[in-house]
Specification:
Blueprint lengths: L6 H23 L11 H5 E2 L5 E2 L1 H16 L18 H13 L6 E2 L4 E2 L5 H9 L2 H12 L5 E4 L15 E7 L2 E11 L9 E7 L10 E7 L5 E6 L10 E11 L3 E2 L5 H6 L2 H29 L11 H29 L6 H4 L1 H26 L1 H4 L5 H9 L8 H12 L13
Parallel strand pairs: 5-8
Antiparallel strand pairs: 1-2, 3-4, 6-7, 7-11, 8-9, 9-12, 10-11
Helix pairs in contact: 4-8, 4-9, 5-6, 8-9, 8-11, 9-11, 11-13, 11-14
């Protein structure tokens, strides 16, 4: 078995390091942009007087960084070559996300709003699999051209993980001779609505509560009457771009439909595996950063005249975390490699449990590592002059979003006990 990273990947990591040093770090330092990353970060990023939304200056800085990365050929790395990308694989993306997060906070990679100089674009696969040619041109090319941005309207106030009990309804209705859909219902945690051009609204169009079939995806333009943002929900980590919203007598034409009628749940699930493995890699990198910073501090700090690191009460918890990081890294990289060598449609049936293992465990691990880093650093670790509180607050949400850890553990359990997946045949009667 060969666990060595491909030489091409090693070379690309070096290229990215050079780009960060020459283009991104200087931008991070100019015009006091470091305020977005030092102890002032939460205030600098958040317009508390405007619903807690991201400040314009913060979002413009992220835009400038991604534009520079795009010009250098990095931002679209994961996208197909025909859209200006490099067909970046899951393995390469996992290694890059791990490495970036292990560098600590910075303009190169700030996942509070999914920003990275090497972007993640699950929408490309979504439109390629389910969109019409017109939708592909509008939303894929428009997405890269920053003229289109679609918020994902799946979650509801009373229905989070269980989307099959969706209460938002869409019924066929013709207006002014044009066939279309009338939408009524409520949504919540629809990230990015403040800058979105469209909301991908998932609605029950047939069937009964609990049915996987009968959900349809409708692309609703942001200025459509009847689609209303009620408030932006303030969160553990600010700023916020997560609204509570509702649809009331909201109408869109038939052309707004993405994918088949009643087949929208497959769209919602189409890119979850790629997102989960990349999120796991980011959490792993952040956990590694917390461990390494704690090790350095423990060697430098000399209470009572000797290294703090000589204390086994300091050593052993970090040893445990470092061990978990090393084991998890192997599993993430192996799983990402297997994803690259498997048909997309087979992921759910063959590898979904391993992807969930990586995701829930990494998200839990980084929270433990950030908490331990605070403890090792003492008072300064608890302060905002160190990044650990920010890392904890940010990554804590990943234990809920992208599939709560309980939901993912249930998936692993179903595979382990043979209710789903390859082991099902072992328990067939």
């Amino acid at each position: 078995m060969d666990f060595a990273l491909p030489q091409g990947l090693i070379d690309y990591l070096a290229e990215l390091d050079t780009f960060i040093a020459t283009e991104i770090k200087p931008l991070e330092q100019q015009d006091d942009n470091i305020r977005f990353f030092d102890h002032r970060r939460e205030y600098a990023r958040t317009d508390f007087e405007n619903q807690g939304l991201p400040r314009h200056e913060w979002e413009m800085l992220l835009r400038e960084a991604s534009m520079r990365a795009d010009k250098a050929g990095h931002w679209r790395f994961s996208a197909p070559k025909k859209y200006g990308g490099k067909d970046g694989s899951n393995l390469w993306m996992a290694v890059i996300r791990d490495r970036f997060a292990a560098m600590g906070l910075g303009l190169h990679n700030d996942l509070q709003n999914e920003h990275s100089i090497v972007g993640n674009f699950p929408f490309v696969a979504m439109y390629e699999h389910f969109g019409t040619e017109a939708q592909q041109e509008e939303f894929i090319l428009g997405g890269f051209g920053r003229t289109r941005r679609v918020a994902f309207g799946l979650t509801e106030p009373d229905h989070g993980s269980d989307a099959t009990h969706m209460e938002t309804r869409a019924v066929r209705e013709t207006r002014d001779g044009v066939p279309g859909w009338r939408i009524d219902g409520r949504k919540m945690w629809i990230t990015g609505m403040h800058v979105a051009t469209h909301c991908a609204a998932f609605c029950r169009t047939s069937g009964k509560d609990g049915d996987a079939k009968g959900i349809t995806c409708l692309l609703v333009p942001i200025d459509t009457p009847g689609m209303v943002v009620d408030e932006y929900m303030w969160t553990f980590n600010m700023p916020t771009d997560h609204p509570r919203m509702h649809f009331e007598n909201c109408w869109v034409p038939e052309s707004a439909m993405l994918g088949p009628v009643d087949g929208g749940l497959s769209i919602a699930q189409s890119f979850v595996h790629q997102n989960r493995i990349r999120q796991a890699a980011s959490s792993l990198g952040a956990a590694t950063y917390c461990v390494e910073e704690s090790v350095k501090y423990a060697r430098e700090r000399k209470p009572f005249g000797q290294d703090l690191a000589r204390n086994q009460g300091i050593q052993f918890p970090l040893v445990e975390l470092a061990t978990q990081c090393e084991m998890l890294r192997t599993l993430i990289y192996k799983t990402a490699w297997e994803m690259d060598n498997m048909e997309h449609k087979e992921l759910e049936h063959q590898l979904s449990d391993k992807i969930s293992m990586c995701n829930y465990y990494a998200n839990r691990l980084v929270c433990e590592a950030a908490d331990r880093a605070m403890q090792v650093h003492g008072g300064i670790g608890y302060s905002r002059h160190k990044p650990f509180e920010h890392i904890y607050r940010h990554h804590r949400r990943y234990r809920i979003t992208e599939g709560a850890e309980e939901i993912q553990m249930r998936k692993v359990g179903a595979y382990l006990f043979g209710y789903l997946g390859p082991r099902k045949a072992l328990f067939a009667k």
